[in-house]
Amino acid sequence: MLLNAVIEKDEQGYFAYIPNLKGCVSQGDTYEEALVNIKEAADLYLENLKKDEIILLEAKNTIIAPIEVLLHGWKTTETYC
Hints:
single chain, alpha+beta, Double Stranded RNA Binding Domain, 2 helices, 3 strands, about 30% helix, about 15% strand, flat
């Protein structure tokens, strides 16, 4: 099964979650560690689902796509990170 994981970096490391698996979250000190940990969390999450829940999950078609929005009042040519 192919799932989308979101991994965000903050001052404490990396935080990961899977939007289609409510409450399925993990973390890691590095991106690689967070990726391994969220895969393990997903495996454990899926083990506890009933067959009909898995069928519904497999039928779900979620697309994560980047979008560009205009920030009024901000200079968009500079980096603010």
